[in-house]
Structure formats: structure tokens, C-alpha cells
């Protein structure tokens, strides 16, 4: 992890295998929490829209159809016309790269196009060639509408799922001035090519050489090159330098500036730019590994956006803790078979001497007596925090004391929980509880601030949505001074209310039949009906944003996987930060 020689530049966790169980997001913390927050922070850059060039390519498809195909006897509908051109682009990129998909995120339908390429045919006939069932259009459509490329007033959901673009509502869609401008710029790159002309004719076939030409000029990887006519306008769109509706575009702009600024600081010290580093910089103001530590300084004009991202990570760590508890619970219950066991019996295991022994080792402190009978105040006093009540002062002092990768720190605990090392022992219950408490105690200082309210407003249904402000107020309502309740009391409440009941509500909410519910509750006994051992909770929009910045020619990776700002990226960041400073209200 961390500094230098990392060939995979982004999101290692992204590549991990798919969960064995088909249950994802068992507590709704992703879809109803992280995804909503990320949508506010990176509006229009969803987890399924990582390639910038689709944003000029799809408007171009509309333009090309209107100019060269519509009204002719062989013309298809607009949607099919776009999908056809998309298929041409996919094949063109595969041919251009000699059979390989684009790096940094292949185009939709690349695998099929590769198989076709390997058959070594002389020409491509798109009337016969099969294409992906879900074209990129479905993934990019809502974002393209929300960025204002079509002449429509309505906004569509900013979702991480593909939408089903209906033919009927689609045929009369028109490009806005902005969409037309983008489309014309892309058109200036490809309009003279043979393939562009051939594809708008009846036989829809073209030679491989002309496909390669199309890929060479209009492909996804070719956008960063200087001279790509659509690049600058796309930069201006993503950084909200064109007229746009609403505050969401300004917030996305600031998020992107923040990401650029952090890439800049990371790269001067040879750190890679991935989710882990970004999270550390935002949450702790530093990135760390076993050997090195880099202090990150957020420029004044980006502190607001960085603080919003910090709220995102409070939710993230809380989510890892609660999913960690869920995962531990279903794993333990599996041992009890159909008879199940009670929550009280499971929680009582916190008193086992092995828990005290293991925790002393993991947390590098000398814990005395039963852990279950001890409380957060006691546990945190072992690292020098005062034994007083949890207030803003204590929250700030915890913030100063518990830095990145410290034994009590969220990132260390997250790694340990995801490693599943303690999933089968009683210590596996204590670790997510400590993660939850560290996170909420660190969060406490934000509770009554506007940022705390901003985070709270991500919950729209107080019975189904969990975000840190709701959980802290739930704990306070139940216990008053929860900081001094025993770990057993806390665990018992958290597991019953925020894990078991939450999972039940969520599974009924999702399917209405409850068949995805992994827990059965029968009086005091709980039985598990499946397993869940891969914690979700990631930041997929950040991954897309990093790729989009690369596509826009603002960053590039060196051979060690370190992401550097290009000359263009440096100048752009400098100029835009000055503007942000001018706008700042002091
Ligand atoms: Zn490519």
C-alpha cells in the first residue's frame, strides 16, 4: 500500500472477487448513504461513467444521425442509430489497439468486438455484428441530460445504475446549444473519415483500415492528446465553466479541483493516487504507510469541499463497522444451525479473556479486566484521552491523538475487519464496535455544525436510512451518556437495532418478500440463512473521477503508477484555484 511502485493506480479493492452471497448492501448503507453523498459531491460522474469521451461522442451520434440518416428510407430510430455508432466506436478502438481493449476502462461491448477481431475478417458489417445488451448510452444518458447537452428542462436521477432509455421518449430529443457545440467539435475530428460516411448508409459496413483510423482519432484514449477538438470544452463542462443550472455543478467542480490538488501533493512525494490515499488525506490530513507519512495541506478555498468529503468518510467508516458487525453475526450464527442463538449470548463473549488478550495486542495497550464490562471512556483513556464525558473538546483531542494507521484508527481497524482474520473469534465482535465508537466520537465535534446537518440530510427516511448523526442521536436517546456505557450494553443495542432490525427492514424494503433476508428472528433467538463476508462500502465515483481527469489530459500515470499533473493540468489548477479564492466569502 502507498508510496511508489504501484502498477495498479486506482482502487485495489475494486478488483477483489465478487461476494459469494448475492446479498449486497445488507444494511442499505451504500445505496441509501454513500451513493447519495457521492452523488452530491460528484454530480454526473457516476460509478458507471468513467470515460470522458462518451460525453462528446453520444451528442455527436445525435448530430450525425440528424444530418446524414434521419428521413432516409433505411434510417433507424435515434436510439438504434446511437447504439450502432457506439458499436462502431468499440470496434474501431479494438482495431486501433490491435485487438486490445482501451486501457483505463474498456468500451462497452469490447469482449465481443475482440472475438470478432480475432476472426480476422476483412471488413466489418454492422448489420450482422452483435453488440452488448446494455449500450454505454444507458449508463451515460442521465448524466448527459443533467449536464445540459439536450434541450430538456427536466432533470433525471443521478444514479449509479444504468437506465432504460425508452425509444418513445427518445426520438424527438434535440441537442442544446452546448450539446451541439460538443457534437460539432467531435464531428470536426471524425466527419471526414470514410467510416463516418459508410456507417450512415444502407449497408453499414466498412473496412478495417478505416475503422482503425476512426479509433485513432475518435477513440477514448485519444482525448487527452493536444489537438483533440472536444477536450477543452469537456474540461469546461466538468469544471462548471459553462453556464449550468444549480449548485451541484459547482460542488463537482470543487471536488475535481480537490482531487487534482491532492494528486499534485501526492505525486511530488511519489505517493500513488488511490481511494486509500485520498481517504487518508481527507480524513486525517495525512497519508501514511509503515515507513512514510505525508502531511497534506488543503488550500483554504478547498476546505469547504474537503470537509464535505470528510463527512462522506465518517459515513464510510461507520458503514464498515456496521457491515463488519453484520458479517460477524451471520458467520457466528451459522455455527448454531437452525436452532440459532440469542443476541445476549453472543454479546456475552466480549467477556472472554481471549478478547482482552487479543485486543491488548492489536491495540497495543494493556487492557485490564473484562472488555465487555469496560467502556469506551476507559478504553480510550489507555491512549491518553481524558476520562471525561464525550464532548467537543474530547472529540477534538481524539482527533489529534488517533492518527492514520494508529491501532485505534479507523483505517487500521477497517483493514483488520476486511482481512477477516478475526471473523471466527469473539474478537471479531469487538473490532467493529471499536471502529464504530472511534468514528462516532471523532465525528461528535461536527454534530451541531452545518456540515453535520448536511450529512444528516442525506437520510430521507429516519426508519430506513442510517448516517452517523442518526446513530449518535439514537445512542444518546437510548443511553444518554453512551461514552460511559459498557461495551456489552452498546454492542447489544447496536447489533439489535442497527444490524438485525436494520437488515430486516432493508430486505423487506428491497424485495417486498424478504427472501434476501439473511436473518430470521424467532422471539429472542436469531438464525442465519446465508453468509456475508465481503464488506461493501467503497468510493466508486472517485475512481470514475480519477479516470475522467486522465481522459481530459489533466493527469497521467508514470511507470510506477504515480499520477502526475500534466503541464495543462498544473496550469488549469493554478488558474482555477485563484478564481476560487476570489469567490471566497471571508
Ligand atoms: Zn483506446
What is the helical fraction, as a range of percent?
40-55%
Classification by helices and strands:
mainly alpha
Strand tally: 9
Number of helices: 23
What do these coordinates show?
By secondary structure, the chain is mainly alpha-helical. It has 23 helices and nine strands. Among the domains are: 24-45 and 309-513, no CATH class; 54-222, no CATH class. The protein has helices spanning 30-41, 54-68, 78-96, 110-118, 136-146, 177-190, 194-199, 208-218, 231-238, 248-268, 275-284, 303-335, 343-347, 353-363, 376-381, 392-401, 410-419, 427-443, 450-456, 468-479, 487-511, 540-551, 567-583; strands at residues 123-125, 205-207, 286-288, 293-295, 341-342, 519-522, 525-528, 555-557, 563-565. Strand 3 and strand 4 (293-295) form a beta hairpin. Helix 1 (30-41) runs antiparallel to helix 12, helix 2 (54-68) crosses helix 6 and helix 12 runs antiparallel to helix 18 (427-443). Bound molecules: zinc ion. The site of zinc ion has 6 residues, from loops.
Give the topology.
Blueprint lengths: L29 H12 L12 H15 L9 H19 L13 H9 L4 E3 L10 H11 L30 H14 L3 H6 L5 E3 H11 L12 H8 L9 H21 L6 H10 L1 E3 L4 E3 L7 H33 L5 E2 H5 L5 H11 L12 H6 L10 H10 L8 H10 L7 H17 L6 H7 L11 H12 L7 H25 L7 E4 L2 E4 L11 H12 L3 E3 L5 E3 L1 H17 L3
Antiparallel strand pairs: 1-2, 3-4, 5-7, 6-7, 8-9
Helix pairs in contact: 1-12, 2-3, 2-5, 2-6, 3-4, 3-8, 10-23, 12-17, 12-18, 12-19, 12-21, 16-18, 17-18
Bound molecules: zinc ion (ZN).
Amino acid at each position: 500500500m502507498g508510496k511508489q511502485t504501484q502498477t495498479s493506480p486506482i482502487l485495489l479493492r475494486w478488483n477483489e472477487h465478487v461476494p459469494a452471497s448475492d446479498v449486497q448492501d445488507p444494511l442499505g448503507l451504500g445505496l441509501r448513504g454513500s451513493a447519495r453523498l457521492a452523488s452530491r459531491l460528484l454530480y454526473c460522474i457516476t460509478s458507471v461513467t468513467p470515460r470522458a469521451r462518451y460525453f462528446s461522442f453520444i451528442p455527436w451520434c445525435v448530430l450525425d444521425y440528424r444530418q446524414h440518416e434521419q428521413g432516409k428510407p433505411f434510417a433507424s430510430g435515434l436510439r438504434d442509430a446511437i447504439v450502432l455508432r457506439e458499436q462502431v466506436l468499440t470496434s474501431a478502438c479494438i482495431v486501433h489497439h490491435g485487438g486490445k481493449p482501451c486501457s483505463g476502462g474498456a468500451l462497452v461491448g469490447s469482449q465481443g468486438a475482440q472475438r470478432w477481431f480475432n476472426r480476422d475478417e476483412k471488413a466489418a458489417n454492422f448489420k450482422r455484428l452483435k453488440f452488448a445488451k446494455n449500450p454505454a448510452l444507458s449508463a451515460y444518458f442521465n448524466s448527459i441530460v443533467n449536464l445540459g447537452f439536450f434541450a430538456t428542462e427536466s432533470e433525471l436521477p443521478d444514479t449509479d445504475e444504468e437506465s432504460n432509455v425508452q425509444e418513445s421518449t427518445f426520438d424527438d430529443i434535440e441537442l442544446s446549444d452546448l450539446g451541439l457545440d460538443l457534437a460539432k467539435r467531435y464531428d470536426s475530428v471524425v466527419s471526414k473519415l470514410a467510416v463516418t460516411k459508410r456507417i450512415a448508409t444502407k449497408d453499414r459496413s466498412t473496412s478495417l483500415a478505416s475503422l482503425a483510423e476512426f479509433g485513432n482519432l475518435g477513440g477514448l484514449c485519444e482525448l487527452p492528446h493536444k489537438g483533440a477538438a472536444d477536450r477543452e470544452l469537456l474540461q469546461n463542462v466538468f469544471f462548471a465553466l459553462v453556464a449550468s443550472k444549480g449548485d451541484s455543478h459547482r460542488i463537482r467542480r470543487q471536488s475535481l479541483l480537490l482531487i487534482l490538488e491532492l494528486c499534485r501533493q501526492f505525486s511530488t512525494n511519489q505517493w500513488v493516487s488511490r481511494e486509500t490515499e485520498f481517504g487518508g488525506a481527507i480524513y486525517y490530513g495525512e497519508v501514511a504507510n509503515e515507513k512514510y507519512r505525508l502531511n497534506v495541506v488543503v488550500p483554504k478555498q478547498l476546505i469547504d469541499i474537503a470537509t464535505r468529503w470528510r463527512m462522506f468518510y465518517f459515513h464510510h467508516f461507520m458503514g464498515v463497522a456496521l457491515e463488519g458487525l453484520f458479517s460477524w453475526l451471520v458467520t457466528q450464527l451459522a455455527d448454531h444451525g437452525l436452532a440459532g442463538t440469542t443476541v445476549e449470548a453472543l454479546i456475552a463473549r466480549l467477556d472472554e479473556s481471549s478478547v482482552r488478550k487479543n485486543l491488548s495486542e492489536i491495540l497495543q495497550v494493556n487492557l485490564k479486566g473484562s472488555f465487555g464490562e469496560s467502556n469506551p471512556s476507559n478504553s480510550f483513556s489507555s491512549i491518553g484521552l481524558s476520562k471525561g464525558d464525550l464532548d467537543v473538546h474530547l472529540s477534538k483531542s481524539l482527533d489529534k491523538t488517533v492518527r492514520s494507521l494508529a491501532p485505534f484508527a479507523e483505517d487500521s481497524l477497517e483493514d483488520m475487519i476486511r482481512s477477516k482474520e478475526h471473523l471466527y473469534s469473539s474478537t471479531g465482535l469487538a473490532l467493529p464496535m471499536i471502529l464504530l465508537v472511534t468514528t462516532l466520537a471523532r465525528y461528535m465535534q461536527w454534530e451541531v455544525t452545518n456540515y453535520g446537518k448536511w450529512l444528516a440530510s442525506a437520510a430521507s427516511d429516519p426508519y430506513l436510512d442510517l448516517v452517523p448523526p442518526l446513530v449518535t442521536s439514537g445512542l444518546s436517546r437510548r443511553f444518554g451518556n453512551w461514552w460511559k456505557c459498557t461495551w456489552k450494553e452498546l454492542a447489544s443495542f447496536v447489533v439489535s437495532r442497527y444490524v438485525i432490525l436494520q437488515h430486516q427492514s432493508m430486505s423487506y424494503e428491497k424485495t417486498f418478500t424478504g427472501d434476501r433476508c439473511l436473518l430470521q428472528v424467532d422471539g429472542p433467538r436469531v438464525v442465519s440463512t446465508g453468509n456475508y463476508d465481503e464488506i461493501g462500502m467503497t468510493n466508486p465515483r472517485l475512481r470514475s473521477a480519477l479516470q475522467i481527469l486522465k481522459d481530459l489530459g489533466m493527469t497521467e500515470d508514470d511507470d510506477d503508477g504515480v499520477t502526475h499533473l500534466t503541464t495543462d493540468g498544473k496550469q488549469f489548477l493554478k488558474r482555477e484555484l485563484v478564481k476560487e479564492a476570489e469567490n471566497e466569502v471571508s
